[in-house]
Amino acid sequence: MSEKNTQNQRLDYLVEEFKADSDEYKDLKTPEDTDGKQRVLRSLMNIRMPKELSDEVLSVQDEYLAERAREKGIVQLSDIPIIRNGLSIWQGDITRLAVDAIVNAANSQMLGCFVPMHTCIDNCIHTFAGVQLRAECNRQMNHLQERFGRNYEQPTAVPMLTDAYNLPAKKVIHVVGPIVQYRLTSGLEKDLADCYRNTLVMCRENGLKSVAFCCISTGVFHFQNKRAAEIAVDTVEKWMTDNPGVMERVIFNVFKDEDKEYYEELI
Question: Cα dihedral sign for 164, 169, 171, 175?
Fold first, then answer.
């Protein structure tokens, strides 16, 4: 049997299992086309609360996501050129990167994005890591809520480390970036710098030698893209100068052409 047929069978199986797992959508009509089935599966994964899933379903999910990763194309560290001093820019889907850690722009609940098919990086990372990622985030948040109270939310710029599960990366570092509600302040700029600095400290403490940063706090968090890039590059360069030999590579992962141009001007 071809891998394509096997992958289609996995998709069919997972759609039905995730439908059965959902009280609200168990009777949902399954589309006949592959793209439609993929959208349904992703949506059901997106809205699923962290809870147990059978080992059999998890195994098929992992096989399915591993093949999806191969289909999208895994990008190795050696595929990304160094511009200078261990710094790189790479434009594209961060879930393709086989690095020690990728950085997720998380929200303060730290459980991922629950909006079906949302295009935010939080949604993409949780989708292609698999349901285990939300479960681990939930376990860590439960421990923190036991310690600090049931209303605890993750503070801005305090990173959380998890496994990456079905992503090519080894780890995911989740960090809550500052939100610009009215105007940009020096405090918000410091918070953004702390996101980068604290993430690099976490890499150092856990022996992670390569990290890919997303454009933290831009987009829906309204941090001006050019200023965010300036803070990112300046903070990372200063930290690497103060901590020589700790990081082998820091990648600024961009999606928009606008951000790529800003980082190219800075590096």
Answer: negative
The pLDDT score that the predictor gives to residue 239 is 98
Mean pLDDT on 4-14: 91
Asked if residue 40 lies in contact with residue 31, where contact means CB atoms within 8 angstroms, the answer is yes
CB 175 within 8 A of CB 106: yes
Angle formed at CA 22 by CA 18 and CA 24, multiple of 5 degrees: 135
Q: CA 30 to CA 37: how far, in whole Å?
A: 7
The candidate with the shortest Cα–Cα distance to 203, out of 249, 164, 241, 234, is 249
Degrees, nearest 5: CA angle 244-74-245: 5
CA separation, residue 4 to residues 9, 11, 35, 125, 244 (Å): 9, 11, 14, 24, 46
Please, where are the H alpha helices in the chain?
A: 3-20, 34-47, 55-72, 121-129, 131-148, 186-205, 225-242, 257-266
> pLDDT digit string (tens) for 132-183?
999 999 999 999 999 999 999 999 999 999 999 999 999 999 999 999 988 9
State which amino acid sits at residue 63.
Answer: E
Phi-psi sector, 130: left (phi>0), alpha (psi -120 to 50), beta: left
Section 117-124 average pLDDT:
95
Cβ atoms < 10 Å from Cβ of 171? 19
pLDDT digits (tens, 9 = 90+) for 46-56: 999 999 999 99
Quote the CA–CA distance of 17 and 13 in Å, as a whole number: 6
